[in-house]
Amino acid sequence: MLKKGLVILGAGLLIAPVLAQQAREGGRMLSRECRREVVQLCGFNRGEMRECLREKKDQLSQPCKGEMMQAMARRMQQSDTSTETTARARTIAYGSNGAQKLDLYLPESARPARGYPIAVFVHGGGWSKGSKDMVQQKPDFFNAQGWAFASVGYRLLPEAPVEQQAADVAAAVARLKRDAATLGIDASRIVLMGHSAGAHLSALVGTDPQWLGSNMTDLAGIILLDGAAYDVAEQMRQGSFMTKRTYEPAFGTEPARQARLSPTLHAAAPNAPRWLILYVSRRADATAQSNALGRALQQAGAKVQLEGVDGESHMTINRELGVPDNPQTRSVEAFLKSL
Fold first, then answer.
1. How many CA atoms lie within 13 A of 182 on its CB side?
2. Which DSSP string do the residues of 15-60 spell out, in sequence order?
3. Prediction pTM value
4. Can you tell me the distance from the alpha carbon of 30 to that of 281, in angstroms, rounded to the nearest whole number?
């Protein structure tokens, strides 16, 4: 794996995007010194970092370049592990479109009489990309807690607007509930979990009854990982140019539509009863959006646990969920036990 990474570095074709991603995601993958070196060279702006590293990668110290290659090798290994994990999943269609499928992972422990409780994961990707396959160690983590785990694929922009994406998430939950007895899961203990855009969709489905209808009562809880767009108009007002480039294709510019797709504005009861809202504490927009949603849910009677996570990035809070002894793993494990 490392040799392959070095070939990429020598070719100079793919290393800039990889370096940009590593510099953004940093976390435990790069030392503090290397992250500081990248920031000093290219700054914090994501839009500019890729081109900067493409031009200036040779100015990084050899130790930092070495760390980059090792980090890339680890990420490639994680991708391999994710592919192997997916191979043991049972894939279930919940609609006629090729994207409308979910992967179900069951524990190897003895099945409870009522079936396994289940965590249903909705991936991120700015509503326009992402895959149900990239689950990292999540299935093993949840299965070890005695929970089934499902990863939902859904239609993406530009094929499907956000309204259809929320409908897809709801349809996946409905399919799991309908066939719960056959699948070996407990239809009364469903936790919906999402990251980034997936957190927005999970929050929308967990607050607005139009999506799940009577099935909303089967949601035991919601877990949100560094979500966004809980209040679309507010985040677009405060966001950067890059934020607006992501949000306008998803939500348009019509205030009424933005409001319909804002979970915070649907937080009046009924809602899912329990919420764990995790956000990266150094991200101002995620902090503000998460706290506003949490307050609105609490005012409506939901039980909400809000936690800012230090030392993680927008990507690592999701990618490293299930890795032992990090804050998001501990929080999710405690939340599951409380259910």
1. 7
2. HHHHHHHHHHH-TTSS-HHHHHHHHHHH-S-HHHHHHHHHHHGGGS
3. 0.78
4. 19
